[in-house]
Each structure stands twice: as structure tokens, then as C-alpha cells.
């Protein structure tokens, strides 16, 4: 066994590159971009080298140095199931968010949380509601499965993964266009709800816009108890608009409210997959039958726990994102273009022309940006990368916009 562990460690060091070792010696180098530009931040494979990836809203500065250290230490525990680490993360999240530990469910990224919500709370309007008793799991009490029923209501455009999950569950899906301020049209979404689930991504992907806190509070007070509201706060840490707030503190007054969070964005763990949701205990009980056991691996759990204990990860990532975002905004404005006001680590630039030729032109110049969004065909989503990446984007953008006009 010791020999196998030693080999695993060496292999891990190879995969992480010299960057991981440098981080241990010089944690200050990580957020400067020095280490990541030389090592594991680069995509694997020779075909991908030299490509500027600004299409997935990733944090280009990488995980916390403490998270990287915790992952290397977790190699000694890879042969164990991750129960203890999961419990530690849940307890840490409960303390930070001021809730009880039985109000938190972990997921394989917040994507698993969205899938579970679609499965638990949407389905055919005429479907059976007869409860099904399930076998007792290895941990916790026996569960009762109650088939989902009702419509999924979403904004257009918004993050679309949950739409496919609801359709697989044979639920009707209603898309409501964003309002003139690119916020969720909450009154229309409420009118369209039929039991089921209302999904609100705030800040919204792909527009990076917010739905104001007063509108959210008034909306939640009006939603009937049989309709569940899922608020996706993946980009919460980047929002600095005074009209924005998290709705986690409102959960205590709203049994039908669920809030999803992820470690993929500000904590830069997109490749590790770890997310969670918070709701009242009784609401989570309806979700638990859909959970996969131990879906979050021990490496992700160790990194997440360490990340929460590193306040500099959030502070520095926010600062660097804001500085570079402002730089790009100023440069784009000089070229005669505006973007939707952004409270995230990306922006939606209005090109005043069909966006597909520009996207293709950028790709030809080794810059990848977001895809076409049919409801906003003249807007282009661009992730805010490091300063050097955004300078490369701007050079390519100037060329691409000329050839596409």
C-alpha cells in the first residue's frame, strides 16, 4: 500500500505540474497569475495550447493555495468513502450561513442540485401522487418518494440545464422573457406557475444582470406554498450592486424557497464539481430520494473545506475580476459598444449585428467566447479572464468585428 500511495502522489504532482509545488512554496504567486500561466491552468493537449478560453465563466486565477494543499493531503484517504469530509463541509456551511446542518444538501456541483430539483418538483400535471416507500439508506432515516408534478418556469435567456432535466421528467416548460432591465419578469413568471418550480438565476447567466432585492422579496411573499422557488446564486460572490442581496436569510420565512450555490466560480473548482443547496428541512426531504450517495468526491470536499477557510480567495478573486472587467468595459466602449450592466465574472456585449460571424472570427483567432443565445442574437457573452487574456481578446475582437461588418 505505501508504494501505491507514493506512486499516486507522484502522478498527481505530474498532473498538477510545477505550479502546485510552487504554490506550496509561494502562495502569493497564485493570484498574481504567475503560477497558473505556467502550469495547470493551461488546457491539456497540444491542440488546445494557445487558445484563450473565455466561454465558460471560469475563475482564471485558480483555487486557493490551501485547497491545493488539502487535495494533496487527501490522497492518503482516497480508499475511504467521503462521509466524514461531507459532514465537515456541511457543518462549515451551516455555520457560515446561519442555518442548521439538516438544511443543507451537497451535490456534484450545483448542476446536480438543479437536476434533483427538476426531478423532485416538476412532472406531468396528471401524474400519480402516490408515495413510494424506499429502502433505508446506509445513513439517515428511511425515505419516501413523492413523484414530482407541475410546470417549470424559467427566464429567457437563462442557464438552461434545468430545462432539459424538467423535460426528461415530462414536465411542461414555460419561458418568460427578461424585462427591459434584463431582470426576471417576476409577475409574469408567477402567473405562469402551475405548482412545480420557478427557477431564478440571480445574477443571471448569460446576461450577468441582477433581479433587485425588493422585487425578489415581494415576489417570494406572493408565491403559493405548493410552488417551489429555486434561486441559483452561482455568481453571488461577484455581485456588488447595492440592489442585490442573497435570499438565504429569507429561507426561514419561506418553506418553498431553495437556494443553490457552487464552488465552481469564485472558488475556482469547476473541474472538481462541488455545490450545495439550502432550504427548510421538510423541503429537502422531498429532494433526498433523488440524491446519489456520496456523489461529491473526497478531493472536492477537502478543497471546498479549505477554500471556505481562506478569506483571501474571495477577496482577491473579486478584486481582480472587478479591475479587469472595468478595463474591458472601458476598451469596448472606446470601440463604440456597450454591455448589459454586469454583476458577475462575465459580460454580455451588444454588437448591434448578428453575433455568429464575430464568434466564428474570434475562434479563428484562437479566442473562444460564449455561444449564440437565440433570444439575444446580437449580444455576445465573454468571460472576464486575466488581464493578458482580455488584451488578446480585444486584439482579436477588433479584427473580427471589422471582417464581419
Q: What would your notes on this structure say?
A:
The structure is a single chain. The chain is an alpha/beta fold. The chain starts with a helix and ends with a helix. It folds into three domains: 2-77, no CATH class; 83-308, Aspartate Aminotransferase, domain 2 (3-Layer(aba) Sandwich); 313-404, Aspartate Aminotransferase, domain 1 (Alpha-Beta Complex), CATH 3.90.1150. It contains 14 helices and 14 strands. It has a seven-stranded mixed sheet with strand order 2-10-9-8-7-5-6, sandwiched between helices. A three-stranded antiparallel sheet has the order 11-12-14, with helices on one face.
**Order of adjacent strands in the largest pleated sheet:** 2-10-9-8-7-5-6
Q: Which structural category do the helix and sheet elements fall into? A: alpha/beta
Which spans have pLDDT < 50 for at least 5 consecutive residues?
Answer: 1-8, 17-27, 29-41
Number of discrete domains: 3
If you consult CATH, what is the topology of the largest domain?
Answer: Aspartate Aminotransferase, domain 2
Rg (CA only): 22 Å
- CATH class of the largest domain reads Alpha Beta
- Give a count of the beta strands, DSSP E runs of length 2 or more: 14
Give the helices and strands as they follow along the chain.
HHHEHHEHEEEHEHEHEEEHHHEEHEEH
Shape type: globular
